[in-house]
Amino acid sequence: MQDRYRVVTGPSLSPSSVSAEELEGLADSLNALPHPVATALNDLTVNAVELAFNSLSPRHRQDLLDRLGIRIAAPRRASKSLCVDVLGRLQRESRQHTCTCGVKGLTNIVMNQVGRFVFAQDGEAVSDPVSRWGESLVRATVFAWCNASVADAYILAWAADQDWFAGTAGGDDTAQLATVGDVARSIVAVYPGFKPGIPEERELPPTAASDDGSEAAAEGTVADAATELDAVCRELDSALVRAREALDKVAALVADGCAPRDDDLAPLAALAAVFDRAEAVFHAAGIEGVSLRLEDMTRAASVHRVTHEHDLQARQTLQELLGVACHSDSPAASAAEAVRGAARRLVDAPMWEQGQREESAALVALTQLIRLGRRVDAAAEILVLQEQVVRVLPACAMAAVMAPELTLAQPEAADREPVEPSADATESTDGSMLGDRADIPRTERADRSGTGMTATGLTHEIAPAAPEPGAAAVLAVSDPLVTGDAPPGNRLQALEEPKFLRTV
After folding, report:
1. Which of 2, 1, 3, 27 shows the shortest CA–CA distance to 149?
2. Which of 105, 208, 304, 481 is least enclosed by beta carbons within 10 angstroms?
């Protein structure tokens, strides 16, 4: 068979409970079709290719041309002759190499709209992709992208109910297509209400894959998304300028009793494709609910870029907390473990929701607490930071109290196992620590560095100099978490409403 369809059982195109045996029938019925993609491409028109090509981003246009062996720079708009060449090469690739990569590269935006239409959220208005792209292009898209998964069963069941699904097929081909629809509907009946997650299978075939899973690659992906959002907004701005000029010209011709030419109408016809592509780019970036209006889309893209730049800075700080440590004899060991767990959970999350951003901000505040140590002159700042950590991350409340007992790992060493701080400390000739404030008598030995204070723990108290009148009192590590004046029934809530949260 020319087009081999495979079973896809894993998320996000199938629920975790589905078995391969349940989907094998759909794969068999698809593989029984005689050259479905090649047949669909034979029905495809040059105008449809032009519409799909112009909807792609400049980078994806160039990728498609390179894949097809067309050695030119991707134009802003495809000419008829280029689209004839693209269609011919797609048809030859499908016939000779049993490959659908080129068709997928051409129809990525189309497939995204098909998926959004079939799996539209409650109250979400998504236009029928056929009304935008035409029957032949949607048919070629469905057969090029779908495999034997639960999500694809939904799409195939929807397509099988459309008149265009059979195309120009007849006889046995029509019966085989009907079988595909029946099998797809049976899978939909078993998994009602299924919604696919992130459409991993809908990504364009990569030209170069990263195999190291490095954080740098993830950062590059975020940067690429922000760049593409800015680029699509600029392209939309230019398209609107050209459309306004064309509209004025067409209005003048009509007012003069003349018929506009195709070239006069082309900028207006192209505007819909630019908006479609912009909508797809915003959807891929996780931006929803933005009206298709240039000013609103530009503002949303700017907010998205600023948010992700902030996330990137926070992730760099979290890398330090992955190696937070304390002395082996310190009672802060469990607190350090809680901090490492919270930091790891956020670092491993590819994208952050608002709640996760608040947690990351609380961990950044904890990093500041560790660096501040027991500085009496920063008492007010310490109180504010402690309150933020306890309010957002109750599991790290102990770490907020015992922050001076913790030390930070260097960012480049964050992925290594936490190393117990050295017990060695440099002393001056009079026995005091070098770099210590002279006005703070110490009852412990410590080394305060730029990344925090390393406690070597003879005792866990300091004897601060008398604070100035009106200065806030900072909770020492030795202070009890539950005071004797706490009313009965509230003693177990001491970590939720600790004494140090009092307003300065």
Report:
1. 27
2. 208
What would the two tokens of residue 95 be? 């016939």
- Residue 70 neighbours by CB under 8 Å, 6+ apart: 82, 85, 86, 89
Beta-sheet strands, E only, within 118-273: none
| Whether the Cβ atoms of residue 87 and residue 46 lie closer than 8 Å to each other | yes
CB neighbours of residue 164 within 10 Å: 14
Cα 325 to Cα 337: distance, rounded to the nearest angstrom: 8
pTM for this predicted structure: 0.49
Q: What is the DSSP secondary-structure string of 170-234? A: -THHHHHHHHHHHHHHHHHHHSTT----S-GGGSPPPSS---S--HHHHHHHHHHHHHHHHHHHH
Q: Is the peptide bond before 55 cis (omega within 30 degrees of 0)?
A: no
* Helix ranges restricted to H, 373-456: 379-392, 397-401
Cβ(39)–Cβ(167) below 8 Å: yes
Tokens of 390: 């306890």
How is residue 134 written in tokens? 């035409």
Report the alpha-carbon distance of residue 411 to residue 350 in Å, rounded. Answer: 19
Instruction: Give the three-class secondary structure for 433.
Output: strand
Sign of CA dihedral 172, 175, 177, 179: negative
What is the spatial distance between Cα 109 and Cα 107, in angstroms, rounded to a whole number?
Answer: 6
Spatial CB neighbours of 376, under 8 Å, sequence gap ≥ 6: 440, 464, 465, 467, 471, 474
The size of the chain, in residues, is 504
CA separation for the pair 387, 228 (Å, rounded): 39
The dihedral through the CA atoms of 320, 321, 323, 329 has a sign that is positive
Q: What is the rounded distance in angstroms from the CA atom of residue 404 to the CA atom of residue 372?
A: 8
Mean pLDDT (10-residue bins), the chain, 504 residues = 72 85 92 88 91 85 90 86 93 82 90 88 78 91 92 94 81 85 94 71 41 43 66 86 90 90 83 81 78 87 82 84 84 88 86 85 90 86 90 89 82 46 42 38 37 36 42 41 41 35 34
